[in-house]
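Inputs:
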Amino acid sequence: EPEVTQTPSHQVTQMGQEVILRCVPISNHLYFYWYRQILGQKVEFLVSFYNNEISEKSEIFDDQFSVERPDGSNFTLKIRSTKLEDSAMYFCASSDDRVQPQHFGDGTRLSIL
Amino acid sequence: AQSVTQPDIHITVSEGASLELRCNYSYGATPYLFWYVQSPGQGLQLLLKYFSGDTLVQGIKGFEAEFKRSQSSFNLRKPSVHWSDAAEYFCAVVRGGATNKLIFGTGTLLAVQP
């Protein structure tokens, strides 16, 4: 069964550094998402992306965050200058339709020191 | 505020016993409803979904869920739990309309004892 893959599985970064989290969505999917889960808290929506542009973003997704689909297969989340509070598990998801279920990757655990 | 509530943070059941995990939502219209499961170190796997129609939906791994509009609930059930069902379970909704973001509950951690 096709799946969403995320790399790396764990990223350790110094505060203030830039980090890029990578995702390969399911190949025929058109809608892409990033969510995050801070330890002990609920999964929170960050951003959705369709037709090469952001379709929706949360208030968490400020100017420090950006997303990109640099080629036909990858979908990336960049945090420009990381803060301690960015430490979380970041999940990428994709779907083939606006209201169809979103399929999730295994996540990238981001640790900011 | 619009939200998804899972009132049980942690549930322990015996293997072979039945299971019901509760989920309530507070939205004006019926949203699209989902249950996901997260095993340790893994991502979120879709168990089942409800969009419309029959209010009892079947999912993978022997799970089912029933949508009750009058109670704004979408409870997950399994008649006989297996040790491999130990995981965290998340109820989630898509409100619909202009948004397709998933809004998650806080999760219920299921432990299964022999």
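Chain B touches chain A at residues 32, 34, 36, 41-46, 49, 51, 90, 92, 94, 96, 98-107 (CB under 8 Å). Flag for discussion at group meeting.
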